[in-house]
Amino acid sequence: MPEEPKLDPVAEAEARRIADNDRAVEAEMRLRTRRGFLAGGVAAVGAFAAWEWIRTRRPDSGEPWPLRRVLDTNEELARDYFSRRRLAREFPVSEAPKELRVNERIGMEDPLDLAEWKLIVTNADRDDADDSGNNTLSMADIRKLPYAEHVTELKCIEGWSQKVHWGGARFADFAAVYAPKKGWGYVGMETPDAGYYVGLDLDSAMQPQTLLCYEMNGEPLPEPHGAPLRLVIPTKYGIKNLKRIGRIFYSQERPRDYWAELGYDWYAGL
Amino acid sequence: MKRIEAKHPWAVRWTHWINFPILFGMIYTGLMIYWASDTYRIGWGSFTLFHFFPDWFYALFGLSHKLSNGMAWHFFLAWIFAINGFLYVTYTALSGEWRYLVPDRNSFSEAAQVMLHDLGIRKSAPPQGRFNGAQKIAYTGIVLMGMGSLITGLAIYKVVQFSWLVTLLGGYRAARYEHFLLTMAYLMFFLVHVSQVLRAGWNNFRAMVTGYEIKTEDAHAGRTQA
How far apart are CA B7 and CA A36, in angstroms? Predict the structure, then answer.
């Protein structure tokens, strides 16, 4: 019979010690691994559940209500930070292209009848309002206000932007004559057919670059861009820059807003 | 002989794994927004090599006609992204962990050697601590990119209130472009990161979940291998 190879008892003990240690280490690591992946799995399921929960909530003006609350909270913070003294960057007139993209004609489906056009102002703090609280203005009344112009970048909520040379009356000057009732914080505007409508916080509207605009590139405002009178408000996305204004009304609460009803941020402030 | 060694503190692991779905959500909802005015391309003059993005891309991921929903999610997730990033940076700064993460003088030459090794040109990997030079540069870079996304994002989001910032970034259109480029850079980072994690193996990946890795010590040479 062949003789068994003799093992060094010291080396044998050492090898056993290492093997025992490694087994214990592997066992310990398995435990930690199980614990770690279990916690991770629970967290992942929780995150998925949170997403699913938000996604399926009752819509509030086109978005699940939790997201609408976040938009509204962002609005509160933005309004706290807003200052009328902060101006949109202005550019030299030479940088303004002659053509401006026409994106939408909502609220302007009817042909424009300049002879019929009038501006109704509702809830202004004036004694000469009619029984419904309305004042009826013509373009001549608007032109009486001081003239202001600027070249600013119109920013569409879609993401594109374009410099435009605008001219008209500052809304702040208009509101000095047709003032909101004391303590009222909002102003709404509509097209004559009320097919398009926007709501604005008065703070943004009173920023000095906000214009009741009747000129583009030094010419009368073209029909597709909202003749005879449109809103230009560089502190808001293009969606708030209402064309063909038919009515301006002051309000104590946020006035309805065409795109905010379809899921967009009501404030849409820049 | 094997032993268990602590590698990633829990704060680093949690902020890392929270960031993963949040950043994915930021990119996804960002693409829902970008779809509405998808003007970027690679090309010269009238020649377009690649348009960001082709129609099949939007169709594949269901990104079309979701601008308002994309914005609502984007401006919600942005808060989590910012807070989580702030916690990560604060933790690494206060705990001293930043020492493992911020590149030093040697990191750049080390990163070059790591790259040569990864490409199979250099035989051995350079000796390293917890992270090698390439990792330090990548992990610090991704934090700076995150800050860049927040800054360019804020500039686009409130362009008039932060007009000084917009001017610094080169204007509104430039800021939007930079925001987009950073997003593309995240995708590049992700590709390299995931392939490196796959290469590094199970022990390395497990450490990012459990916090611990197994180290094997050669009893004779006293050398340690991860």
Answer: 14
